[in-house]
Automatic annotation (TrEMBL):
Its EC number is 6.3.2.-. The keyword Acetylation does not apply. It comes from the Bacteria. Keywords: ATP-binding, Ligase, Magnesium, Metal-binding, Nucleotide-binding. The lineage of its organism: Bacteria, Pseudomonadati, Pseudomonadota, Alphaproteobacteria, Rhodobacterales. Residues 48-263 form the Mur ligase central domain. This is Folylpolyglutamate synthase/dihydrofolate synthase family protein. InterPro entries: Folylpolyglutamate_synth, Folylpolyglutamate_synth_CS, Mur-like_cat_sf, Mur_ligase_C_dom_sf, Mur_ligase_cen. It comes from Meridianimarinicoccus marinus. Belongs to the folylpolyglutamate synthase family.
Amino acid sequence: MTTPGSDILLDRMMSLHPKIIDLTLDRVWRLLARLDHPEKRLPPVIHIAGTNGKGSTLAMLRAGLEGAGQSCHAYTSPHLVRFHERVRLAGELISEPALAVVLDECLEHNGPDPITYFEITTVAALLAFSRTPADWTLLEVGLGGRLDATNVVEKPALCVITPVSVDHEQYLGDTLAKIAFEKAGILKRGVPCVVGPQDDEALEVIEAQAARLGAPLLVHGQHWHVWEERGRLIFQDETGLCDLPLPALPGGHQITNAGAALAGLRHLGFGEDALEAAMTGPDWPARMQRLTGTSWNALLPQAELWLDGGHNAAAGVALARHLDSLPDRETHLICGMLRTKDASGYLRPLATKVTGVQAVSIPGAEATLTAEETTRAARQAGLTAAPARDVAEACTRIAATAPHARVLICGSLYLAGTVLAAA
């Protein structure tokens, strides 16, 4: 019997639970047990949680490990264009036949029992990882940490918590301390954890949880430091000082993401080849990605075109700082966001950096803000804004009034995915 294609199987999985997000591990443990616990047969795991920078930090870790000749499985979310992007087997995107086999097997073993889309697809990824040799497994938390479907590995080799800020309050809590508690849920007894820059409120919670578990911490500002100096990245820990190229991923916020990756690699015993590769090797789409040679560039032939998927207040601050670092140029946003996000909070730091906003809805996203709603949020944040029918119309408008502008398509990874799919 031929296994159905992955798209058909993924569609079936969407119908297994009435909620997209329902944080508990019971359903995941049930399915893992039916599959004879693939999470116990993984190569050494590095588990990464945080609000911002998880994916970038994972990309740098993977580049560093591969630069040292190691092979890596990697699990990230969400995908931009195709689900296959979420699962890398020993460095390569999972093939269609391999993906279809593990999805089909998970559906068969789960039967009609309720399970969310993210839970069952995470189990499918773990199943694939358990059957393919590799040196490392890199797991990015989907949401929170404590009750996230990735939080099933009893003893990772290393944990990483990137900066924690306010996001997903409806699921994680309405204070920074509550959110940090959920992120710190990935800590395991005796397992070291690299901790990126944190507000005091978040760090206090992480340190308290680590103390309860006897989990050694490697904390930014205490055990490691990182900064830019004369166009180079300088990293220092208790072992010594490293002088490295700046991260290939653009943006000043990538300096601290790089520091977390370097701290992890150093702790695991990797040397200069891995550290340099972590800086020069990563490629992470839709994180201040410069678009060239696409159909969107054809609509804006004289403009400088960028794409970024940041979507919360901390991402807005990071984006504003990055725009400050670029050469002076009139800047326009094409912005689409989900209604689960604080659109005004994201846009407010950008109010003094950009000339105007073309607001769009996100095609195919049920939770999208309408263009009119994003327009109102942008105006509340102090920006000049107008709704556009779609990204193409927004590009055409900007080309007519500011053909030489810098144009940034932003506000959501889901919007970024539709842009890349149509590029």
